């Protein structure tokens, strides 16, 4: 069982920045995909950003150009740098790491991000 611990969430004003971290209890160098998802109140969980094992990234349309995902395999950590934050970015952000294609992977407990206008 792999444990994921997210950190870095908080309250920030619109236009500000936050960096989220996701620390895995197991090595992530073999993970086929690592990503961040978010869920706003009353809405479904949505893709924010993912990065593959060969560092190919994909972003949700609403965050392109503002957010950057990265992974540090040596530290078993996945990061999400969030700039130019907007109130609509508010939600609980979850880390997901997939080690084998076809599996759902592992999820963290989530970290709250609140952007005030």
Task: Catalogue the unreliable spans.
Answer: none
Rough outline: globular
Helical content, roughly?
under 10%
The span between the termini is 40 Å
Largest beta-sheet details = 7 strands, mixed
Total of DSSP H or I helical runs spanning 4+ residues: 0
Order of helices and strands: EEEEEEEEEEE
Tell me the structural class. mainly beta
Tell me what the structure shows.
- By secondary structure, this protein is an all-beta fold.
- The protein has no helices and 11 strands.
- The protein has strands spanning 4-7, 10-13, 18-24, 33-39, 46-52, 57-59, 67-72, 77-82, 91-98, 106-107, 111-116.
- The strands form 2 sheets. Strands 2, 4, 5, 6, 9, 10 and 11 form a 7-stranded mixed beta sheet that branches. Strands 1-3-8-7 form a 4-stranded antiparallel beta sheet, with no helix packed on it.
- The chain is globular and about 40 Å long.
- It starts with a strand and ends with a strand.
- The mean pLDDT is 96.
